[in-house]
Specification:
single chain, alpha+beta, four-stranded antiparallel beta sheet, rod-shaped
């Protein structure tokens, strides 16, 4: 039934003796029009995901209730116009959902509005992939303290509506708590053999510096090591971690190491000069997500301690490295400068 038909019936009912019968037929036809225009929206299997879509679902239910109670042709005409608007809204929201599911890259769950039954298996597959990626972002950018408050994904039923609720209840709030600096910030540390530490000491050091290359190709948790004019340069994005999107669900069921101390890193730095590789060695199969600042501070302590111990064996000044007489820890110059008068 279109508007012209409804207008014609309205005019006819004003003069026809079978007014009630015509109105009832028109009302039934209007309800059949609803079923023809919105068959998926009326299906119990259709999932209305967003608040906007859920509001539309209530509007459709309300429209059907009003249509069943029509008592005049004027009401029928109004209902016809309302149905056209509902159809337009349903098409718009469903099109936005289809566009989001077909878009490559990250899935924006906020753009999922209406999912027909035939689309839900694919939507569940895409959503599960997105959940794992975002869980990884949380642990690689926000850290284990934020990550551990999220219930393990593998203990949640693998149903689309429940996984959507899981995302909105746990994943999205955690992502919202990650600061902009953590999301988009990069880090860089430069290793130099001898750096002045204070007025006297000359020791090797890992010093924080500005990244000298664009890191757009690096994912959170990744790093690169290059040789620069200043020394060995380590650059990365996010925290230093061995967790990946593929292992993040496994990591949810264990304790993720959040910090590293010089004592823990010592054995690893004895085997390699690369702090990231040293961390991998001492952690073994345990999951970790450590801030770059903590890791390189621990590495800085370890390399300085190594040099001081070596100087002691070589009878060199602990601070400047110059030869000393006998077993003295400091040379005469450093001794003179450190004496408190």
């Amino acid at each position: 039934m279109n508007r012209k038909t409804a207008a014609f019936l309205q005019t006819l009912c004003e003069y026809a003796p079978q007014k009630k019968e015509l109105l009832e037929r028109a009302r039934q036809e209007l309800l059949r029009q609803l079923e023809r225009d919105l068959p998926n929206a009326l299906s119990a299997a259709t999932l209305f995901c967003s608040p906007e879509a859920q509001h539309l679902q209530k509007q459709i239910d309300g429209w059907k209730t009003r249509a069943e109670r029509i008592v005049s042709m004027r009401e029928l005409t109004d209902q016809m116009e309302d149905l056209e608007q509902l159809c337009s809204q349903e098409k718009r929201l469903h099109t936005r959902t289809q566009t989001e599911l077909a878009r490559p890259g990250f899935l924006n769950v906020g753009n999922l509005h209406i999912l027909y039954l035939s689309e839900q298996d694919n939507a569940l597959r895409v959503l599960n992939q997105m959940i794992q990626i975002d869980l990884f972002r949380i642990v690689a950018l926000g850290g284990p303290d934020l990550f551990r408050h999220i219930p393990p994904l593998d203990r949640q039923p693998n149903h689309l509506d429940l996984r959507l609720n899981y995302y909105k209840t746990y994943i999205q709030p955690a992502l919202d708590r990650i600061s902009e600096a953590d999301q988009y910030g990069s880090w860089a540390f430069c290793y130099q053999d001898m750096v002045r530490a204070g007025p006297l000491a000359r020791l090797p050091a890992f010093q924080i510096t500005e990244p000298v290359q664009k890191l757009g190709t690096l994912l959170p948790g990744e790093y690169k090591m290059t040789v620069s004019g200043r020394g060995m340069l380590y650059q990365g994005v996010g925290r230093v971690t061995n967790i990946t999107p593929e292992t993040v669900v496994e990591a949810q069921n264990t304790t993720v190491q959040a910090r590293i101390t010089p004592e823990q890193l010592f054995d690893g730095m004895n085997q390699t000069s690369d702090p990231v590789q040293a961390l991998q060695l001492v952690m073994g199969k345990r999951f970790y997500s450590v801030s770059a600042a903590d890791l390189f501070a621990a590495a800085d302590f370890v390399v300085s301690a190594h040099v001081i111990v070596q100087r002691g064996y070589s009878r060199q000044c602990f601070l400047c490295g110059q030869p000393v007489q006998g077993n003295a820890p400091l040379c005469s110059h450093c001794m003179e400068k450190t004496i408190v008068k």
